[in-house]
Input
Amino acid sequence: MGELPAATAVRTTWAELPLHVREGVEDRLGAAVLRAASQGGGFTNGVAARLTLADGSRAFVKALPDDHELAPDYRAEARIAGALPSAVPASRLRFSLDTAGWIVLVYDDVEGRHPDFSRPGDLAAVLTCVEDLAAVLTPNPLAWAPDITEPLGPLLRGWRTLLDEGPAPGLDAWSVRNLDRLAELESRWVRATAGDTLLHADLRHDNMLVTSQGTALTVDWAWACVGADWVELVYLLPSVAAAGGDPEAVVTSHPVTRKADPAAIDAFVCALAGFYTHSGRQPDPYWSPHIRTHERWYGRLCRDWLARRTGWA
Output
């Protein structure tokens, strides 16, 4: 993870929340907050803090202003997290509040840390978690969950956008040489990813935790949608590549991707590469000073992986 700072988010703190909001959380928790430790991972500027309460218990809180451009994601997360089956390896939502101009989600606090994919034990725990997700969430248990095309459709068209916009200054030579066929391959991802599995659809190292028992679980279910079971793992694999791992070795050995159509995986990897490549060229949003650096890095990783899979020079 060396190409990004250890703390990627610039957080509002618990103490900066309006008093009314803090009191509302404490009332629901049944105890006053003694300490709040802000967490630096992720890419938003909302509150993310581990709370220690006066009764000795703990909780995790995240909060965002209700007029923030990511507010719909927080509302979606509250709905999804509150409806997940208990067998899903995920942190448990206790309650959510929409009050005084803030959206607040309060979870059980998990004693754990983000996985380091360069550590074999962490990687093994995460790969087991992905397999468990596919087993528990197929068929999709939430009839109202959106199809994968709803949240990802507007995003996974980066190559076609670059093709429509014409020559892009600074675009890497491999992408320039192959732009026509990248756009064509990208266009196949919708059909390729059809399925009946509820997906987290945003798995990265900072959206997972490894517990003190050595098991992995998921957090931040804002993008949940329905598609093919193998999509979850393929989406995660740029994070493995970022830690020096070989995504192709995982694809060929993991149960959810071993049975997947290689052409379908090609289309989705291509779509991810296009998203990261195009989005990484955009201006930094005010709420996340490091997200474009992350996207440019992951774009390069996905392009390298796709070039290996396709053999395109």
In short: The mean pLDDT is 94. The first helix runs from residue 19 to 29.
